[in-house]
Structure formats: structure tokens, C-alpha cells
Design goal:
Strand content: 25-35%
Bound molecules: 4'-deoxy-4'-aminopyridoxal-5'-phosphate
Oligomer: single chain
Largest sheet: 9 strands, mixed
Shape: globular
Distance between the termini: 30 Å
Order of helices and strands: EEHEEHHEEEEHEHEEEEHEHEEEH
CATH architecture of the largest domain: Alpha-Beta Barrel
Structural class: alpha+beta
Helix content: 25-40%
Number of domains: 2
CATH superfamily of the largest domain: D-amino Acid Aminotransferase, subunit A, domain 2
CATH class of the largest domain: Alpha Beta
Number of helices: 8
Length: 285
């Protein structure tokens, strides 16, 4: 099936949507992106995704050549053009084409691309039985080197960790920061439950501040739970009552073993299931 893609100023068939081989997005991973999801024709937290895209762009001194409203409009238009009520949207802004050198000031025309597609979901079984994950030896990039809060086109740090997870037969892998503290998984944020309270690493642990993460923190507070950002180490995970991951694609997914150790009862916990249910209600509200 041929898709309709939005590029810069208009919708076009996917075959016409091309970027230059001189685009620094391709040559250096110089650019930013977002992954969004629509439920029943409505994009979940569109504004938050657009704001995060702008924040990422600002952090790398990339000026997006469209307004926030125009990009939001492009996201909705692309979903509609592909007749996707429940879909996944990839929003990309590249640095644009330039010379074969790093200098971003010698590039022009950042490319704004919106791709909408059906979403590929984890099998149902993972949600019912829980995921097994392992800790990757690859550390999360230090903020002093490159802030993990930038959702940039350079995802090699996460890809290296993902490869380690796959090698161990796991679809996700845990990443620690350079201090050995828990940061996040390769494409998802992590939470634990301990004594009824919800804990998740703070922004400065080396995470992408997930939009699903923030929604789950709000849901927990609304449900009367204690929900806090806290520095976590693997000891906290191994001895937790429950563990789960959050992300746009994964939503809320239970984790039942980490590095071969059972977490809590070794089955998805009640608080995880409650938050998962509340999240499903929220996205369709
Ligand atoms: N961490 C990383 C590294 C990610 O790539 C993602 C997915 N965008 C997340 C966390 C989860 O963020 P969100 O809930 O906004 O999808």
C-alpha cells in the first residue's frame, strides 16, 4: 500500500518524498524527531509532542521552518490522508542539505517530514505475561556529551543497547547512566512500585522525558498514589514489588524479570494493571 507523506509544505505520494544525499540528517544524524500516536482519530498529547520537538530543535540550534500550528496541522492532515484513525506518526526535521563537512551553518532548507502508518504493536502476550529485560553494558550517553533529553536522529546509543537486549532474547534492555544509576530502556521509560508508591528516575538521570511517563505520573496522582521521581539503582529494581515500562508505542507494559531475576511475584502487578487500564481510558477520552 502506497502511503501519503507530508514534506515541507504539502502532502505527496511516498515515492515522491525524497531527501538529498547531502542532507546532514543522513550524513551526521543531525536532526530531531518525534513518535506520536492517534487513537480514534485524535493524536494523544499532540501539543506536548510538538513542544518536545521544538525543545530538541532548540537544543541543537535548528530552526524549524514552520510554525507549531502548521506542524500540528500537518500531522492531522497526514493521518487523514492515509485514513488512519488509530495510527503511528513519525515527525522528522532534518538539518537540510549542505557540504560534506559537519558545519551546520553551511546547510540550508531543513526538511520537515510527517509519515503516518499503522502501528506495530508488541504481541498481546507481553502485556498479559510481562516482559523479560536485561541490563545492557552500553551506558546511556552522559548529558555532558549529548543530552538524552534531545530526541535526535542519532539513536546509536540506544541501538547499541537494543542489540545487546536482542542478543539476550529480550525486546527491551535497561540502560544505566555513567554513575550506574537506572536511566531508562532503549525506547521506553521505566517505573517501579515499592510499598504502594510509584518511583521513576528523574530527568537528570539521563532520560528522554517521555510523554507517556508524564501521563502515567499524572494518572497515579489522580488515583491517590504516591508518585515520585527518585534516583534508582539496580538493587531497587531487583527488590521492587512491580516494574513496568512506558512509551508511545508500548503504552504501559509490565516487566516480570530483569537480568533473569523475578520482580515481585513474577507476574504483572495490580498497580501496573490499574495504571495500564487508566491509560487506555485516558487516550480515548
Ligand atoms: N525513552 C526513549 C529513549 C525513547 O526513545 C522514548 C520513545 N520516544 C521514550 C523514552 C518514551 O517516550 P514517549 O512516552 O514520549 O514515547
Amino acid at each position: 500500500m502506497s502511503r501519503i507523506v507530508f514534506m515541507n509544505d504539502r502532502l505527496m505520494p511516498e515515492d515522491e518524498a525524497r531527501v538529498s544525499v547531502f542532507d546532514h540528517g543522513l550524513l551526521y544524524g543531525d536532526g530531531v524527531f518525534e513518535g506520536l500516536r492517534s487513537y480514534a482519530g485524535r493524536v494523544f498529547r499532540l501539543e506536548a509532542h510538538i513542544d518536545r520537538l521544538w525543545e530538541s530543535a532548540r537544543a541543537i540550534c535548528l530552526e524549524i521552518p514552520l510554525s507549531k500550528a502548521a506542524v500540528a496541522d500537518a500531522v492531522n492532515q497526514t493521518l487523514a490522508a492515509n485514513q488512519l484513525a488509530d495510527g503511528y506518526v513519525r515527525l522528522v526535521v532534518t538539518r537540510g542539505a549542505g557540504s560534506l563537512g559537519l558545519d551546520p551553518t553551511r546547510t540550508k532548507n531543513p526538511q520537515v517530514i510527517v509519515i503516518a502508518d499503522t502501528i506495530s504493536l508488541y504481541p498481546r502476550e507481553y502485556y498479559e505475561k510481562g516482559l523479560r529485560i536485561v541490563t545492557a553494558a552500553t551506558q546511556r550517553t552522559q548529558s555532558a556529551a549529548l543530552s538524552p533529553r534531545i530526541k535526535s536522529l542519532n539513536y546509536l546509543n540506544n541501538i547499541m543497547a537494543k542489540l545487546e537486549g536482542l542478543e539476550a532474547g529480550c525486546v527491551e534492555a535497561l540502560m544505566l547512566n555513567h554513575k550506574g544509576e537506572v536511566a531508562e530502556c532503549t525506547g521506553d521509560n521505566i517505573f517501579i512500585v515499592r510499598g504502594g508508591a510509584l518511583l521513576t528516575p528523574p530527568r537528570d538521570a539521563g532520560i528522554l522525558e517521555g510523554i507517556t511517563r508524564n501521563a502515567v505520573l499524572e494518572l497515579a496522582v489522580q488515583a491517590g498514589m504516591i508518585a515520585v521521581e527518585a534516583t534508582l539503582v539496580r538493587h531497587d529494581l531487583y527488590t521492587a514489588d512491580e516494574c513496568f515500562l512506558t512509551g508511545t508505542a508500548a503504552e504501559v507494559i509490565p516487566v516480570v524479570t530483569i537480568d533473569g531475576r523475578c520482580i515481585g511475584s513474577g507476574t504483572p502487578g495490580p498497580i501496573t494493571m490499574r495504571l495500564s487500564k487508566d491509560f487506555h481510558t485516558l487516550v480515548r477520552a
